[in-house]
Amino acid sequence: MKQLDPMDASAANAAKSAIEILNDDHRRIIELFSLFENMRNDIDDRRKQRIVETTCLELALHQQIEEEIFYPALRRAFPQHRMLDEASVEHDTAERLIQQLSAMGEDDAQRDATFTVLGHYVRYHIEAEANELFSKARRASIDLETLGMKLVQRKHTLRMRHLRLLGSPGSSEFVTPFGQVAVMQQAG
Q: Exposure of 124 by Cβ count < 10 A (0-12 exposed, 13-18 middle, 19+ buried)?
């Protein structure tokens, strides 16, 4: 799997709208779930575990920037929008599954099933956002380009903090992605 330089990604995303940024995340996350599904019968549990860990990290970062930046902007434009309430519940469900996955090892019998269920939830959430929330955001008086820059900057900051924590003394080779996001929130 090709490693992306976060600095290159930030520069490339600087001129994109918030919806383009989130759609790029969605595509990347769906690709990771698809890659895992294609490995269903693969016996390389370490490789599958790396996909689970990468996906969970990407989801955690994505959810955090949506909850901190994108959803509040939509909430200001649409204070009573039920879709934002549903998105919050979907994020909570995904967070619980990510936490379960973070506690599982590569040899855990429930890992594949839990990750598959997470994939179903995430696909449903992505489809709902694309079909309803994004179209409403385009019609609202929201500066999607400025919002996009804020999303890119925040995600870059979170990713850099995560990488610093991974390299800090006493850290394990893999620090659970959702645990890191919780640490980042407390440290920031």
A: exposed
Average pLDDT for the chain: 82
* CA geometry: angle 56, 29, 75, nearest 5 deg: 85
The mean pLDDT of 66-70, rounded to a whole number, is: 96
Looking at the domain assignment, is residue 110 inside a domain? yes
Residue 3 lies in a domain: no
**Contact yes or no for 178/95 (Cβ under 8 A):** yes
Find the CATH number of the domain harbouring 178: 1.20.120
Please determine, for residue 122, whether its predicted confidence score (pLDDT) is greater than 90: yes
CB 92 within 8 A of CB 67: no
pLDDT tens digit string along 11-62?
455 569 999 999 999 999 999 999 999 988 777 788 889 999 999 999 999 9
The Cα–Cα gap between 137 and 130 comes to 10
Domain that holds residue 146: 12-187
H or E element, residue 148? helix 144-167
Q: Which residues, 6+ apart, have CB-to-CB distance to 175 below 8 Å?
A: 162, 165, 166
Asked if the structure places residue 7 within a domain, the reply is no
Q: How many domains does the chain contain in total?
A: 1
